[in-house]
Amino acid sequence: MTTALIVGQPNCGKTELFNALTDSHAPVGNWSGVTVAVESATFCIQETSITIQDTPGIYALMDKPESEDEKITHAILTQTTPDLLINVIDVANLERQLFLTSELLELKIPLVVVLNMHHAEGALPKLDALSVALGCKVLLFEKNTDSKNLHQSLLSELKNPTPPTPPILPLPHNVHTMQDADLHIADARYTFCHKVANLAQVQQTKSQDKLTAQLDAIFLHRYLGLPLFFFMMYSLFFFAVHVGGIVQTFFDNTSTVLFIETPSLILQKLNTPAWLSDIFCNGLGRGLTTTISFIPILATMYFGLSFLEGSGYMARAAFVMDRLMRLIGLPGKAFVPLIIGFGCNVPAILATRTLENKRERMLTILMAPFMSCSARLTIYSVFVSAFFKENGQNIIFSLYLLGIGAAILTGIMFKKLFFAQELAPLTLELPNYQSPNFKRLSSMSFIRLSRFLKRAALFIIPVCISLSVLNMLPSLNAKAPNLLAYLGQMLTPIFTPMGLTTDNWPATVGLFTGILAKEVVIGSLNTLYQQAAHLNFASPVSNIMQQYFPSFASVYAYLVFILLYMPCISTMSAIKQESSAKLMWIAIIWSFGIAYILAILIYQLISFATHPLTSSKWIIGLFLLAASFILCLRRFPQITGDLHAV
Q1: Residues 521-576: pLDDT tens digits?
Q2: Are residues 93 and 230 in the same domain?
Q3: Which of 122, 184, 287, 320 could form a disulfide with 225 if both were Cys (CB 3.0 to 4.6 A apart)?
Q4: How far apart are CA 61 and CA 75, in angstroms?
């Protein structure tokens, strides 16, 4: 099998080319560090099977890679020999990105240079002059480029592979130290890149740079930057709740008719047993209905996130948050994985590979699960529609802020467990602002949504069916109607201090099923509330929920617990993969502890007027517990060494 490797500097368009060549849907974004692992796909052309691999961005081969993603690419380029290297260069940064090209030429591996014209303005570069200067074939990759033409060009190179002849760079004869040698080599490379870029005669206007400078003066302002970031986040949630909410009722009603009411009528006419109808309608049907009900909110949320990412604003958020992140011993660059966590915590954990040292990665991994992912948003939206119809976006925004606050608190606390060290100045490439294409935004949103729905259905439907079956098993206690209710009522007293009553045992069961995946919480509640209330299959669950939660305080405390408690199994697996089992268990215990303490504290504070004496006892007890924990951290500094070993 023939192998071609796509390489280039960060944010040059490697993954765009990979998707075009292989008809894949790998995630892309207008910032550095989107690709943090090798993506691979195979296509056939003229009976030739070609495997294309997309690698994380790397600035240079001569430097020792610091981040995990750069180490991956460096290892592939220095330890393997692919049949063809495809070097992608963003024409808007031609001279700078030719530095990596000058190093790739010296590997003596057949090379094709692909000029990405997506961000370029002005006249096209002179390909013939570039090809002669570099000693290899040069292709253009434009917005309307036909992938078949790219396939044919690559196939011709693979059939007649010719290693490039690297240029001989002039160096002085007398060099006294290795440091001097490195400086002379780098200077010779930059001189070569400058000459080649001039030969290409790329003429660009400065309109894009001027607009970027004007917008950065606002969005990166010393005092306005942070408020504007939170305004952007608030606008995103407002957009998701209100625009998505317009059609949510339609999706709910339509899916209920299709997957619950209609099957129920058919099964009744067929005189099927009640248990079979229950499994089919309240299990399978409820699972499908729950999954479909997520579509409006998530579609608008993903569209808004894709817009912010494609516009180039997300990269600026790292600079805006740099001062705040340094208070907890992290560079602003560490905020990029946390932002990714708004979509899903798993890629957020993987994105920590872009950080330069292990300490920063471990600390960011512990913080990432507190960012509200899209699965949690589906839970918030259901509760908001039932309890907070007038100010739903404010409730959701407060939960997102609380998640960021919990992440910062985690950083402050665990900073004491890691060896302190000086932070280097933040260096992060800022792309130009762009106006994202509507078609591309829709495509990215659809891909994200479809991936989420597939994963959600994989968990929700089996869980709903399993809960329906468990709900039919006889109880071990006469006070409980079935085995599941008996187990739920046994565990519910643990959560009584945060407002859950024994009758609300389905909420407790939902917390445990939510460990599989957070979106399963709603599927569990839909199934269990429906059966617990002995209503027909089509009754609105939001009305039933209002009967089981005694107050808004208990609802908000429940949402806080869902926000902060144990990561889902996919996130736990990612933490173990990127660090160790020890750090995974630390994350589990810490997140459950902080969720339990804050949920109780918030409930007791909000409902203080109702039961002041009980609330006072709980608040004092929680503060004593927190103080004891802090003292333990100070008294056992050897924990630092243990965490460094993960």
Answers
A1: 988 888 888 766 555 544 556 677 888 888 899 999 999 999 999 889 999 999 99
A2: no
A3: 320
A4: 10
